Structure formats: structure tokens, C-alpha cells
Amino acid sequence: MDVALRVDLLADDCIVAELKMVEQLLPIHEAQILTYMKLLNVPQGLQFTSSR
């Protein structure tokens, strides 16, 4: 199964940033950023969340 993954922001090839517009963060959101970090071999990640 081929799945296209798109990281929201990759800064200086060392930080993955994910932007979320959700009422609350769920475990799937954490799994998503951890997957990006693993696939891109990036040591750090940030999640920015807003409900509005």
C-alpha cells in the first residue's frame, strides 16, 4: 500500500512541526508526528494545536 505523507513543516532538516486544528490532541496525532520523525530521521518534533 503506497501512502503519501506530507509533513507540515521541516525546519533545517532537524525539527518536524505539525499544525493541528482540532478540539483535542488524540493518540493518532502523536503517532503521526512520531512516524514523520522516524521516516525522516529527524530527532525533534513540535505539535501546534488550535481549536479555532
C-alpha Rg, in Å?
Answer: 11 Å
Strand content: 25-35%
Q: Can you count the beta strands?
A: 3
Estimated helix fraction: 25-40%
Q: What structural category arises from helix and sheet content?
A: alpha+beta
Write out key terms for the chains shown.
27% helix; alpha+beta; 1 helix; 52 residues; three-stranded mixed sheet; globular
Your description of this structure?
By secondary structure, this protein is an alpha+beta fold. The chain has one helix and three strands. A three-stranded mixed beta sheet has the order 1-2-3, with helices on one face. The longest helix is centred in the middle third of the chain and has 14 residues, at 27-40. The radius of gyration is 11 Å and the shape is globular. The chain starts with 8 loop residues before the first strand and ends with a strand. The mean pLDDT is 90.
Nutshell version of this structure?
This protein is an alpha+beta fold. Helix content is 27%, strand content 33%. A hairpin with a 3-residue loop joins β1 (9-11) and β2 (15-21).
Topology:
Elements lengths: L8 E3 L3 E7 L5 H14 L3 E7 L2
Parallel strand pairs: 2-3
Antiparallel strand pairs: 1-2
